[in-house]
Amino acid sequence: MAARGVDERLERYAELAVRVGANVAEGQLVFVRGVDVTHAPLARALARAAYGAGARYVDVSYFDQHARRAMIESAPDDVLDWSPPWTLERYRAMKDERAAVLATTGDPEPELLQDIDGDRVGRARPKEAIEIQMQAFREGANNWSGLAYPTEGWAQQVFGEPDVERLWEAVAFCTRLDEPDPPAAWDEHMSRLERRAAALNELDLDAVRFRGPGTDLTIGLLDRSRFAAARFETAWGRSYVPNVPTEEVFTTPDARRTEGTVRSTQPLALAGQIIRGLELRFEAGRIVDVQAEAGAELVRGQLESDDNAHYLGELALVDGLSRVGQTGVTFFDTLYDENATCHIAYGFGVPQGVEGEPGGDGYNLSTVHTDFMIGGPGVEVDGLTRDGSAVPLLREDVWQLAE
Amino acid sequence: MTPAERLERYAELAVRIGANVQRGQIVEVVGLVEHAPLARAVAGAAYRAGARYVDVTYGDAHVRRARIEHAPEDTLSTTPHWLLTREREFARARGAWIGITGDPEPELVGDLPGERVGKTRMVDLAEESMKTVNERLINWTGVAFPNEGWARAVFDEPDVERLWDVVAHAVRLDEPDPVAAWAAHVDRLDRRAAALDALQVDALRFRGPGTDLTVGLLEQSVWCGPRSYTAWGLPHVANMPTEEVFTTPDARRTEGVVRSTRPLVLYGTVVRGLEVRFEDGRIAAVDAGSGADVVRGQLATDERAACLGEVALVDGKSRVADAGVTFFDTLFDENVTSHVAYGSAYAEAVDGDPPEQGFNVSSVHTDFMIGGPEVDVDAVTRAGDVVPLLRDDVWQLSA
Questions:
Q1: The pLDDT value given to residue B301
Q2: Chain A nearest C-alpha distance from B219 (Å)
Q3: Structural domain of residue B384, as residue ranges?
């Protein structure tokens, strides 16, 4: 029976997120969280799909950037990083009850906070709540996935006009929803990325070097750094795909061994502002200087909120074959833009990027994780092996290893 | 007044007169996703009133629909524990609470099995929130946000402007000084409540087409107007609009039959032509033109839902009645005419601590409308006199 007013593409998209993305299990609790109020149609489709996959209960919690703006503008200073105690139980339940978690992106107003004090925007993070989520992440408690919802505001930001249909087409292409059998296409795609990660692990790299305009950066790796891609597994053995789309192979670097300068190659939408022309300088792993054409204050505020945020937690490689990159579009949405090109993240290390338990010397622990884009045709990427030789990985955005 | 100014003024009214938000208070704003513009305006107004933090939480009737349709039968009435903790912690913080109504799709689940619809209620959460209200731990109010779907339900066309006019009139936003107008209105209803207290009413009798109902009161029953007080003495106005005086009946002493005079929106279905028969205080039979099974499903979730917890009187001078429409929203429809509620009683409408016997405790509180020009309302005093209260919707006492 066809339900009333159901958008068939939206239902298929939600199915993809629930079945391939989070891989919701029969009888599981499901949280759909951080959903912008304009994403309600997707949240509803996700709830239907999750119940359809056998969820016991689906908890949808909405997020309102306008309410957050009012908080940042008006609340007392000590409230900025405060977590309302009555919200914490939800995060604990998410972690302790091994829930499936779905989150949506696609900011309808990526510059809503552009005109307010960047330092306050950067500090406005509910720390205690974030710490519980970080712990869940490190423990591998949840099968989770993020996906975007095309909205008018987002389309306006991307194309300069509110062409939602054009944005939907780009999203469908990037997420392989345009394929006759999207799950099969995803399987094939993920296997290719996994072979690429395996080839990188074969090289036993000691460091990765990026060189291009404004960039000369060397990122040391840990002995136990491992390249990984696409498919994760929870501590209790459930596989899932955290990012829809995903085009990267990534690893967790040695937080103590980043040296040099880097210039971002794409704008970064961060917490309601857009950071343009970000330039960072690293010494002994630590960010010692932040410059940007716009938004530097926000980045500095975020770094100040947590000292370990000054160190890298992720390094990811993406080549020009990326479907996201092929669109030629800047999405102003990290889920997309980080899959268009190589990127690094300051803040916490990714557990899946190391062998064994997360933690220990050189593995960065922080409440922050901010990806920003540093790759592109003008940036050469080399792997440095333990015997000191350089292996070209990317030239002109073309992957250099055999596949 | 531009639409933006109107929204601001409404939000200010909700914050200053309704919840009466205090400097340094935590504020919770709860609405549906469709209510975001008013929720945002309320958040801004609350910060201007000195709120420490405003938590805006949105519900989604479509997500609830998915639960009704697909969730395992034995989970339908359960409350996720984090929502229960949330309610308790918020009450402990002595927060202010502002709820937003105005259902964009009053019949969203009208096509689903009524019994499952009635069952899909977070019973523990409802009990906890009744407790919070009855222990008077928070200062709270309910307001409504005109939206397209709601306008369509009311007028058969999505004329949001027309609905705004009606709502603005009902909540006295159309007055030059709404704050002063509210003060005068509240005083008038307080005098009416005092006059009823002076009568020493033992029971109320409703008589009209399909209705012959006697509602016995408790010795401790007191009549209340719009002003409520928290346990620490902070006044607030719990409903905007409000036109009623109400009291807590003796849950054991309702007898007879009653026919509702207006449709009732219940959990995404519309209950029409509801007829209820009471025996020894309990609902013994439920009939309705539509939605009877939703009411029966709801009553089945809770032993004491079937007894009355509130009786309220509204006369024809109600501003909410001026528009002559059915709102499909209880906050409005219950202020058009007299009503009773099955389920939980309000502690503020009894003198002293609620008595063990006769004060109804339940996770349900469902108001339905039973008054109108054809329904005579009398008070039977403890002395045995019969005093007319309403004839042809006209208030019969001097106050």
A1: 83
A2: 39
A3: 179-395
Pair B92, B201 in one domain: no
Q: Indicate if B307 and B327 belong to the same structural domain.
A: yes
Q: For chain A, say whether B82 makes contact (Cβ under 8 Å).
A: yes
Dist CA A76 CA A371 (whole Å):
29
Structure tokens at A377: 């045709």
In this structure, the answer to whether residues B118 and B195 fall within a common structural domain is no
Query: Does residue B133 sit in the same domain as residue B187?
Result: no
Q: How far is CA B271 from CA A174, B62, B77, B300, B367, in A?
A: 47, 19, 21, 17, 12
User: Pairing between strand A380-385 and A205-212?
Assistant: antiparallel
Tell me how many domains chain B contains.
Answer: 2
B186 and B305 part of one domain: yes
Q: What is the CATH number of the domain that holds B30?
A: 3.40.1830.10
Sequence-separated (6 or more) residues with CB below 8 Å from residue B177: none
Distance, in angstroms, between B90 CA and closest chain A CA?
6
Residues B107 and B195 in one domain: no
B188 and B159 both lie in a single domain: no
Q: Which residues of B touch A86 (CB under 8 A)?
A: 85-90, 93
The Cα A304–Cα A302 span in angstroms is 5
CB pair distance less than 8 Å for B66 and A92: no
Chain B residue nearest residue A37, CA to CA = B33
Q: Which of B130, B151, B170 is the last residue of a domain?
A: B170
Residues B323-338 pLDDT 10s = 999 999 999 999 999 9
Q: What is the largest CA-CA distance in chain B?
A: 56
CA atoms of B75 and B129, how far apart (whole Å): 20
**ipTM of the complex in this document:** 0.90
Residue A162 neighbours by CB distance under 10 Å: 16
Sheet (strand B376-381) strand order: B282-287, B275-279, B249-259, B211-217, B201-208, B376-381, B386-391, B394-395
Distances from the Cα of A227 to the Cαs of A246, A346, B35, in angstroms? Answer: 14, 17, 46
Cross-chain Cβ contact B80/A57 below 8 Å: yes
Residue ending a domain, among B114, B137, B170, is B170
Asked if B161 and B198 sit in the same domain, the reply is: no
B340-362 per-position pLDDT tens digit: 999 999 999 999 999 999 999 99
> What digits encode the pLDDT tens for the residues B126-150?
999 999 998 999 999 999 999 999 9
State the smallest CA–CA distance between residue A256 and chain B in angstroms.
38
Q: Which residue of B has its CA nearest to A56?
A: B71
- A125: pLDDT strictly greater than 90: no
Q: How many CB atoms lie within 10 A of CB A134?
A: 18
